[in-house]
Design a protein that fits this description.
The protein has helices at residues 15-26, 34-45, 50-55, 65-68, 71-80, 84-98, 111-115, 129-142, 149-165, 187-203; strands at 4-8, 29-32, 104-108, 121-126, 178-181. It has 204 residues and is of the alpha/beta class.
Length: 204
């Protein structure tokens, strides 16, 4: 059985948490596509050309996700993500993952629009920049990384602008996506809404 759940939305809106929970609940595989762009960004920070990095990405580049989940790498990721050849180099892997037998959940910025325009379920998960910055700050603090709220908010806003305004696969809700604003939702409520949506679609 092929069944694809596409989850898009801005930084720290809850895509990853919702995506992992939906995947667990239905036994689907989960891919955080942001990690691919982060891995390219990390190689750029080590002096490599972005396009070469994207073309040469290996599983080793993703072996330590926590090392990729830091602000400098996030900024570098959103810079390499504007380059069409970088996106092109990462496309086939994402599509193959989406079409795997057994079902797949992918979260990112362009899953419902470019990677899987025919996904069975499309969600656009969002929240206000202030709520997202607060969440990201708490997430970082839990890992022992202390960053000022204002710096996190500036990072979130800068990436939102770059992701929305780029010409190649800009971040936008697909026309047939269901928008889930998690600003005032608990994690449990957001997951429940997403699970209900997938369950309803699976029955049709
Ligand atoms: O975890 P967070 O939401 O902060 O970011 P991420 O999902 O790890 O993505 C990091 C950056 O990669 C984003 O700011 C985007 O510029 C880029 N990205 C993208 O362009 N397309 C995707 N499908 C996923 C990420």
């Amino acid at each position: 059985m092929r069944f694809t759940v596409a989850i898009d939305g801005p930084a720290a809106a809850g895509k990853g948490t919702i995506g992992r929970a939906v995947a667990d609940r239905f036994g689907f595989a989960h891919l955080d596509t942001g990690l691919l762009y982060r891995a390219v960004g990390a190689r750029l920070l080590r002096g490599e050309r972005a396009i070469d990095a994207a073309r040469g990405l290996t599983p080793d580049d993703l072996a330590n996700p926590d090392a990729l989940r830091i602000p400098d790498v996030a900024q570098a990721a959103s810079k390499v993500a504007v380059i069409p050849e970088v996106r092109e180099a990462l496309l086939e892997f994402q599509r193959a993952f989406a079409h795997r037998i057994g079902g797949a959940v992918l979260d990112g910025r362009d899953i419902g629009t470019v990677i899987c325009p025919r996904a069975e379920v499309k969600l656009f998960v969002t929240a206000s920049p202030e709520v997202r910055a607060q969440r990201r700050m708490e997430e970082m603090a839990a890992k022992g990384i202390d960053i000022a709220y204002d710096d996190v908010l500036a990072d979130v806003r800068a990436r939102d602008a770059r992701d929305t305004e780029r010409a190649a696969a800009p971040m936008v809700a697909a026309e047939d996506a269901v928008t889930l604003d998690t600003s005032d939702l608990s994690i449990a409520a957001a997951i429940a809404a997403a699970v209900d949506l997938v369950a309803a679609r699976r029955e049709t």
